[in-house]
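Lab notebook, page 48
Experiment: co-folding of the full assembly
Goal: obtain a model of how the components sit together before planning crosslinking
Operator: M.T.
Materials (sequences as entered):
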Amino acid sequence: MELPPIDANAADSRQRLIQAAAEMFMKEGYRASIERIASCAGVARQTVYNHFSSKDDLFSEVANIAAGTILISLDGEEEEVRERLLRFALALRRRVLGEEGLAMFRAIAAEAPRFPALGRAFFVKGPEQTLSRLAAFLAQAMEEGKLRRDDPRFAAELLISMLEGFERLRRLFGADPSPEVQEEEQAARIVDSFLRAYRPSLEGSAHG
Amino acid sequence: MELPPIDANAADSRQRLIQAAAEMFMKEGYRASIERIASCAGVARQTVYNHFSSKDDLFSEVANIAAGTILISLDGEEEEVRERLLRFALALRRRVLGEEGLAMFRAIAAEAPRFPALGRAFFVKGPEQTLSRLAAFLAQAMEEGKLRRDDPRFAAELLISMLEGFERLRRLFGADPSPEVQEEEQAARIVDSFLRAYRPSLEGSAHG
DNA sequence: TATAGACTGGACCGTACAGTCCACACCCAA
DNA sequence: TTGGGTGTGGACTGTACGGTCCAGTCTATA
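Observation: model returned without errors.
Model output:
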């Protein structure tokens, strides 16, 4: 409509395009049309094909980029295990249960059967990476006797599952928004439950 | 094509239609066209509109019916808590992580933003119901001193999350199929981790 | 045998969309 | 000044789809 034909440095349009496409794909899924994406980026439809060979191509590109933004850090060497896990928990939930995270989840999960490579790439860049980092952290904590010795990857899966699990279902399907207020309390409860299961064994082997 | 114009009792076509629609919607999501659904049910397209007012209507109907099939029972009054949880765990995972369960999950999650009522209905009929039953069971076990006293709904959320959580991610995005063989072992490990966190408190209050 | 209801198959309409083509405008560097 | 690279807007093609209409057929029931 009223787009200024001014500068808009060459390569810039590609960026705006990706940005807009990400937004639209998250909002509408693969349904988002090239037309709308282009106009949302303030760009002619032809320009889209100038940068990407097809809609699939654009979608893959965007999804791949988006997948790389899910990493959660576990830094803070000084703190106690519980504090670090708590920070991790909060960051993970904010990222993964936020509107953007949910939208991306929906969009990619829906198309995974048609784009197997994309689905796998997303998983490897996102959840798998997060899992590995957490597992490494837990492994060290186990090494130091701060957690019960056990398979750290399995433990990491459990914690991540608890953090994302049911709340993701709830939001994915639009059930009651679940009061954002108690976000920290929720995370703390979960982390504490995890710690209870992985407390260093005080007793010998009370378990058959 | 080769459809037999024989009997096919009146109301039967509706059943076949729903059946076929479920299959197609799970396979292709909302993308599945009326045309294909009809032909897959061995029925004329007009017949679809004979029973449903629109594609949305058909989709909602199918999703609603499908949602009602997710309940997992916790019967077996005689067994120990661990055994019953284990049976529950296996049943839940089989149902929810099976091809059908995943497909339904994908289809409904993807359309939930456009069909808010449907999303909520699915959640209430499915996960929410399962959660309630499990919570009731856990509450009783707590009452009987077989589990540590705590909020049973929260505990149920944790267990369900652990059972579905990461494995669902893996399969949803098409990562390595995860050897079906160790299905029981996996379930057992998770249940045991849960029981460890909810073991009746042997010690007083070692936790601040 | 007559009548009503359900199903068929195919024509038809309007729309949305992916992707292509082209004539023109702009900007930058040679 | 000139020419190539990039973007523009709009026309165009082909396809898929949702939804409607209808003429005809079959079946069961009265």
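Interpretation: Chain B is about 65% helix and 0% strand.
Next step: discuss with group before ordering constructs.
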